[in-house]
Design brief:
about 40% helix; globular; about 270 residues; alpha+beta; single chain; two-stranded antiparallel ribbon
Length: about 270
C-alpha cells in the first residue's frame, strides 16, 4: 500500500509539473507573439507605409509559389513557407514584393519525409497593361564540366524558342526562352543583360518573366527581408530607419530592372530551336 501511495504521489507531482510547465510555455509563447506583433506594427508596417504610401505588409503570407512556377522562374519544390509580403499600387500598376522560402522533400530511413531548404530569397511582380505580344523567360544556369546545368528550373516549354545573345558571358550564366522574337528584342537589351549579370554575382540565382500584363523577378538571396523581431523602445528609431533603408533598397533594385526591361535599347540576337 505504501508503495502504491508513493507511486500515486509521484505521478501527481509529475502531472502537476507538466501542466505548470505547459502553462508557462503558453504564457511565454503568447508574450513573445505579442512582442513580434508589436514589432511588426510599430517598425515594419510603419517603415513600409512611410516609404511606400498605401502599402500593406502581411507577416504570415507570401506570393503563391505556384504562380512563379507557372512563370517558370523558380526551381521545382515540394513545400513552401510564408515569410512576409508587401502589396502596393502606383498609378495603374499593382505590385507585390514577397519573401520566398522553398523546400524539397526526400525520403527518410523510417519511411517518412525530410524537408530541406532549397531556396531563400525574394520575388517581385508588377501588373500593368503592356503591348508586349509574347512571353520571355530568363533563368539562371551554371556550368559543370563545360556542360550547362539549369539548377532545377524548367527547360524549354511548348511554344518557346531558345534565344542566344551575342554576349558570351550572358549565355554562360542565363538561358533565355521566348514565344515571340520581337518580345525578346525589347527585353534583351545590353542594359538588362549587364544588370542581370551583376545581380547574378550578388544573388547566385535570378529569374525573370515578362509576358501579357505581368513582369516577375525572383532572386535567391539566401536571406529574408523584414525578419521577425522584438520591439525595443530604446532602439526603435534606429531600427525604423534601418528598415526604411531596406525598403528603399528593394525599390531601387526592382524599379531599375523594371525600367530597363520596359526600354527598347537595340540588341542583336540569334534564335536557336
Amino acid at each position: 500500500m505504501d508503495h502504491l501511495n508513493h507511486y500515486i504521489i509521484n505521478l501527481v507531482i509529475e502531472i502537476t509539473l507538466f501542466v505548470v510547465g505547459l502553462m508557462l510555455f503558453k504564457k511565454w509563447a503568447t508574450a513573445n507573439r505579442k512582442k513580434h506583433q508589436e514589432y511588426d506594427e510599430l517598425i515594419i508596417k510603419r517603415a513600409v507605409s512611410e516609404v511606400i504610401p498605401g502599402a500593406e505588409f502581411f507577416r504570415e503570407l507570401c506570393m503563391e509559389p505556384s504562380v512563379l512556377n507557372g512563370f517558370g522562374i523558380i526551381p521545382y519544390y515540394d513545400e513552401y513557407r510564408g515569410k512576409g509580403m508587401i502589396r502596393y499600387k502606383m498609378g495603374e500598376k499593382n505590385y507585390v514584393f514577397s519573401n520566398i522560402h522553398l523546400l524539397r522533400a526526400s525520403s527518410s530511413q523510417n519511411g517518412g519525409k525530410n524537408y530541406r531548404t532549397i531556396y531563400e530569397g525574394q520575388a517581385y511582380t508588377a501588373h500593368y497593361k503592356t503591348s508586349l505580344p509574347g512571353r520571355v523567360r530568363i533563368i539562371t544556369t551554371k556550368r559543370f564540366l563545360n556542360n550547362e546545368v539549369n539548377v532545377g528550373y524548367p527547360s524549354k516549354r511548348k511554344g518557346e524558342t531558345k534565344i542566344e545573345t551575342e554576349n558570351i558571358q550572358f549565355n554562360d550564366n542565363f538561358d533565355v526562352f521566348a514565344t515571340d522574337e520581337q518580345s525578346a528584342f525589347f527585353v534583351l537589351n545590353p542594359v538588362v543583360m549587364e544588370q542581370l549579370l551583376e545581380m547574378k554575382q550578388r544573388f547566385e540565382e535570378v529569374g525573370v518573366f515578362v509576358g501579357g500584363e505581368t513582369m516577375a523577378i525572383t532572386l535567391k538571396t539566401n536571406n529574408f527581408l523584414f525578419p521577425e523581431g522584438n520591439y525595443n523602445e530604446q532602439q526603435a528609431l534606429i531600427t525604423l530607419e534601418n528598415t526604411k533603408d531596406e525598403v528603399r533598397s528593394m525599390l531601387r533594385m526592382t524599379e531599375l530592372l523594371e525600367d530597363t526591361i520596359n526600354g527598347s535599347i537595340e540588341n542583336n540576337f540569334t534564335v536557336r530551336s
